[in-house]
Design a protein that fits this description.
Chain lengths: 298, 440
């Protein structure tokens, strides 16, 4: 029973982190129809920005608990600067072109951002682990867990619910949904599609940067962060269905639980477990769990 | 259009004639000028996850050392400027991008950059890929860091060398340290990365434990992917399986993340941490490094380096340049470049003071030995192509007064105690109970 509870809690904790990142990825795909490889780089920039800001706050004796606000602020700043630059300055030039070309463009962005990150922050690691330890520990199923991990579950749930509410219960959200279904029809109804694209891309970058910023206190922030996260995030959104927020949540949970079960029961199958689950789901639901079948435009 | 004799005379006015003479002289003197330069291709991670821990510190080490060599500032017997008077010129290449890219980069270094030697490679996969290429091209290659024993245990080379011990030493010395300190071990946990380095380290440690702690049982045996970053689940799995020690060969960002996350959950209070290659995280982690962790540095490096005039000079040179003391990566780079310098000067002396050929350079290094900041390096294995060296293991303690982690209870192991003899593969040597090992 304890093992089951441990797997459940470990799986949910891992899924929370993953969901925040995957949420941005799926949002960008849903609205802009771009498989954004540079998403991993925005995650890394978010981690660096978060670590820098929190590091500075800690150096002026600010209580570590306040650093949560700083992490959010760092993600907002990254999104406010990088998203318009990328979307308006680069991606816009390729709209309407082959989707594969857009993937290559974002891959080029990924490579450039890797070097830009290194130029800005160097190769030395950044630590802000005081924040990680600032929220105490809890004892669940005979295990001691860090309070920060539990907090992450709450934050991920909050991010998911807020995004769902905005998309489904607000006027702006309904406009975004209209653009998701058909940008041309939405434009003909007077929707400023270009603005919606920028806003959606900003939200996507915000979630990537937030995922990175929230991870910063748990790790040493240094070059190479962007690669691993993008691969597993793709697995999540493919399982859930590209462009689906509910899908990203369920996909993250499936990946998190499969991985946790493998690590506890049969460790060599850790990576295999994620991709075998993905393969099985795609066998029965090639579009992912939550993607609606769409009519092809002729 | 035909150029007449008149036009030639007009063209060859005094200033033109002077320029032509200078050009002709430069062309004639070309080979002599080229002899005054020894070009080295230095390959290490300048980007990606291994950059911070290994690649950049190693390249930084190479830069200060080459500058000191060229100025003739190194202590004797390395005090001749450059390599025997030849100025050293270095070309730096990023190791990131995978083995296929590295093979191409290696060819470029030899064929386009016309380097006289390549010194490089942290990744075992990269070493395994580039070694046969250098051999096929009959070009001099020094592997300075990668750990896999397979390179010289499974193949024979003439032009490829490794100037540092392979990974078997790291785990044999860890197990010997535990035994020497009477650490009680009935059960142990392991966490190693799921690639060549992690798998080899895991195997070597388990084999060594079978010899030194008969009956000790492995509980959790985890192999997370390289660059995992998130270890929450692994830490739970380790915590559910009580053990006396926790062995790991994690390094770089993975090791730092694991230490931060595991410390916060009290893992090291219940299990003795035993890390095979962790010295490089000490300067960065500082007071976040738990006390009492037993660790190795893949040699007698950094805080465990032996006292000598050469080491004092090197340690000070690096510390002054980068405001941090050198850890394993720059030490390994230094011992490779010192070995190359010694071999180049020996080969030049045998060649009448002229720049040696690739064959002469290889012959000079094969089976040789030289002094390094970490002690004597001897090319004793792989028919004289693979080095052995002494090593050391110590225990962490944060020194609040000095604001740094220091290492206590340091124990040194001679090269012959923790490396296999020339006629045995490392795995067979450990399984046979370390025959021929000479430990004080």
């Amino acid at each position: 029973m304890n093992l089951l509870l441990t797997i459940l809690f470990d799986g949910i904790t891992y899924a929370s982190w993953l969901f925040i990142v995957a949420l941005g990825l799926t949002l960008v795909f849903g609205v802009l129809k771009i498989l954004n490889i540079a998403h991993g780089s925005f995650y890394a920039v978010g981690a660096y920005a978060g670590a820098s800001l929190v590091g500075w706050l800690l150096s002026i004796q600010m209580a570590p608990a306040f650093s949560l606000v700083a992490l959010f602020a760092a993600a907002v700043a990254v999104s406010a600067v990088l998203a318009p630059l990328t979307e308006r300055g680069l991606l816009r030039m390729f709209y309407g072109r082959d989707e594969v070309l857009l993937v290559l463009v974002t891959y080029a962005m990924f490579l450039m951002l890797e070097d830009i990150t290194k130029l800005l922050w160097g190769v030395n690691p950044y630590y802000v682990s005081d924040t990680y330890q600032a929220f105490g520990t809890l004892h669940i199923a005979g295990q001691s867990y860090v309070g920060y991990d539990v907090l992450l579950i709450g934050l991920a749930t909050g991010c998911g619910l807020l995004t769902w509410w905005v998309l489904n219960r607000t006027r702006q959200g309904k406009i975004v949904t209209a653009v998701i279904h058909s940008a041309e029809v939405a434009a003909s109804m007077g929707v400023n599609v270009s603005r919606i694209y920028t806003l959606a891309f900003m939200c996507g970058v915000f979630f990537a940067a937030l995922g990175g910023a929230l991870t910063a206190p748990m790790i040493s922030v240094q070059p190479g962060l962007s690669v691993g996260v993008i691969i597993v995030s793709f697995a999540v959104v493919i399982i859930g269905g590209l462009g689906s927020i509910e899908g990203a949540a369920i996909g993250a949970l499936i990946v998190g639980l499969a991985r946790a079960a493998a690590v506890h029961i049969w460790p060599p199958a850790e990576l295999f477990s994620i991709y075998v689950v993905m393969a099985v789901i795609l066998m029965f639901r090639p579009e992912g769990l939550f993607q609606r079948i769409q009519a092809r435009k002729i | 259009m035909e150029i007449t004799a008149k036009k030639w005379r007009k063209m060859l006015r005094p200033q033109w004639r002077k320029a032509l003479w200078i050009t002709a002289l430069a062309i004639t003197a070309g080979p002599a000028l080229a002899q005054e330069t020894f070009k080295i291709g230095i390959v290490s991670f300048l980007s990606g996850q291994a950059a911070e821990s290994f690649g950049v510190p190693a390249v930084n080490g190479a830069k200060v050392l080459i500058e000191a060599f060229n100025k003739g500032q190194a202590p004797a017997p390395y005090n001749k400027p450059g390599f025997g008077g030849m100025k050293i010129e270095a070309v730096y290449v990023d190791e990131a991008g995978g083995a296929t890219k590295q093979v191409q980069e290696l060819r470029n270094l030899y064929e386009r950059e016309k380097v006289d030697a390549v010194v490089g490679y942290v990744g075992s996969g990269d070493c395994l890929a580039v070694a046969p290429v250098a051999e096929e091209m009959k070009r001099f290659l020094l592997l300075y860091d990668c750990g896999t024993p397979r390179i010289f245990e499974e193949n024979k080379y003439q032009y490829v060398f490794r100037t540092a011990s392979h990974a078997a030493m790291d785990n044999v010395s860890l197990a010997r340290y535990l035994k020497a300190r009477n650490v009680r071990i009935e059960r142990y946990n392991m966490i190693n990365q799921d690639y060549a380095w992690g798998q080899d380290s895991r195997k070597d440690f388990m084999l060594a434990m079978e010899q030194l702690y008969k009956g000790a049982k492995v509980e959790a045996d985890l192999l997370p992917k390289f660059g995992a970053g998130q270890y929450g689940t692994e830490i739970s799995a380790l915590s559910t399986k009580p053990a006396d020690i926790l062995h790991s060969s994690l390094w770089g960002g993975d090791l730092q993340a694991f230490i931060l996350q595991a410390s916060a959950r009290g893992v090291f209070q219940k299990q003795q941490g035993v890390f095979s290659a962790a010295d490089h995280v000490l300067p960065a982690l500082g007071d976040k490094m738990p006390n009492g962790i037993i660790l190795g540095a893949r040699g007698a490096y950094g805080l465990m380096s032996p006292k000598s005039a050469l080491n004092d000079w090197w340690y000070g040179l690096y510390e002054k340049a980068y405001n941090v003391y050198p850890v394993q990566a720059p030490y390994r780079m230094a011992q490779a470049l010192l070995g190359l310098k010694a071999a180049a000067e020996k080969a030049m002396a045998a060649n009448g003071g002229k720049k040696p050929t690739q064959e002469q350079l290889a012959a000079a290094l094969r089976g040789s030995q030289w002094e390094s900041p970490a002690g004597t390096i001897r090319m004793a294995l792989g028919d004289g192509q693979q080095a052995i060296q002494e090593t050391a293991i110590g225990k962490t303690r944060y020194d609040a007064a000095r604001k740094m982690v220091v290492l206590d209870d340091i124990q040194r192991f001679s090269a012959e105690c923790v490396n296999p003899p020339a006629n045995m593969k490392s795995e067979d040597w450990i399984k046979a109970g370390f025959p021929g090992a000479k430990c004080q």
